[in-house]
Specification:
Layout: E1 10-16, H1 23-31, E2 38-45, H2 51-61, E3 65-70, H3 75-85, E4 90-93, E5 99-100, H4 105-116, E6 120-122, E7 126-130, E8 133-135, E9 147-149, H5 150-159, E10 170-173, H6 174-179, H7 192-199, E11 205-208, E12 214-217, H8 230-245, H9 252-271, H10 278-290, H11 301-310, H12 315-338
Parallel strand pairs: 1-2, 1-4, 2-3, 6-11, 7-12
Antiparallel strand pairs: 4-10, 5-12, 6-10, 7-8, 9-11
Length: 339
């Protein structure tokens, strides 16, 4: 594929909300790239701190920046606003409290696109707790084919936790998102889950970026991902229910991979079940029991770990066990981030 010089290659969309302490690092890590054929769309989602002023200052100094200032509508609404304003061939979502490492990321992605023209490029993030504690799981080492037909590797991508419910670990052709109206659901928490589940229906080709450039900040105070609310789990339940009932594709392999994807998020509901009120627990219980068929070895590496314990436990005991794991993991994150 020959990339036309007068055609914008990347639209990088950064929703911004009350991140004054982290925003400069995020912007600097993108604006320092050796490849300049991109636009950086900053969507200020009604920030009440100095985030807007920071955006305006950067806009004055960098021609790549397009600033959209809007009333607060949540992460989904901000991403959708950025997507509608985007002009690039490929879209990259980046959260404003995270950042990139290395200056050749966009140049590498450009070369990969020139060679393969994939519908999606998947990359693995590094999880940041402190300056001395940042780690990438690097599961791509288990994938034999790093590019090609999405259908040929989709089961492996889901199994090895490479295709997961995150918007920021994917570089996607904008035309796929716009033509299929793949916008983020407004008003829902954990909106990436639904969006990524629907995206699987439309991908034909893929590539894996070999380096970990995205740094995902963990346990940041004030982050919407730091604590899990009942609203989060209620929304995950609704998304899993809708995903399992959605119309199937023409490919048995893709349908199986999509079911495996929803199985991963079913486990999220079980893990966080006790966050829900007693009334909600009773309301969704029959569905959770009917979905037990999703607990099957071979769907995903995380589900395989769950199955090691489920073979010795009842369903109710498994939920209690996973709740203990949730609490332990939450405190472990806080401890690592405080060191």
């Amino acid at each position: 594929m020959n990339i036309e010089k007068n055609k914008l290659l990347f639209s990088i969309i950064v929703p911004v909300y009350n991140v004054e302490d982290y925003l400069p690092q995020c912007l600097d890590s993108i604006l320092c790239q050796t490849f300049s054929d991109f636009e950086l769309i900053l969507v200020n989602d009604g920030s009440t701190d100095s985030s807007l002023e920071i955006c305006q200052k950067y806009q004055q100094n960098f021609h790549q920046i397009k600033l959209v200032n809007k009333e607060n509508g949540g992460l989904s609404d901000a991403r959708n606003t950025g997507l509608k304003a985007a002009k690039g061939e490929y879209v990259i979502f980046t959260d404003s409290d995270d950042y990139w490492q290395e200056k050749e990321v966009l140049e590498d992605l450009s070369n990969l696109i020139s060679q393969r023209n994939p519908d999606i490029i998947i990359h693995e993030e590094s999880r940041f707790f402190t300056e001395n504690d940042s780690h990438c799981k690097y599961n791509q080492r288990f994938i034999k084919n790093k590019n090609g037909n999405f259908e040929d590797e989709i089961l492996n991508l889901v199994y090895h936790d490479l295709y997961v419910a995150s918007a920021w670990d994917k570089v996607i052709k904008r035309s796929i998102l716009v033509e299929n109206e793949l916008f983020f659901p407004v008003g829902r928490k954990s909106e990436d889950i639904e969006w990524c589940g629907k995206l699987m229906h439309y991908l034909k080709t893929f590539s894996i970026y070999p380096k970990s450039f995205y740094v995902y900040r963990q346990a940041r105070q004030g982050s919407i991902t730091t604590t899990v609310s009942a609203k989060h789990i209620e929304d995950v339940y609704e998304m899993v229910k809708e995903g399992l009932e959605a119309e199937k594709t023409n490919s048995e392999i893709v349908n199986k991979a999509i079911e495996n994807y929803w199985a991963c998020n079913y486990v999220v509901i079980l893990k966080d079940f006790y966050v829900l009120s007693d009334a909600t627990q009773k309301q969704i219980w029959n569905d959770l029991v009917s979905w037990k068929y999703l607990l099957k070895k071979g769907r995903n590496i995380k589900i395989d770990k769950v199955m090691k314990f489920y073979r010795f436990l009842t369903f109710k005991t498994l939920i209690f066990f996973l709740n203990g794991y949730r609490i332990k993991r939450r405190w472990n994150k806080k401890y690592r981030a405080s060191k």
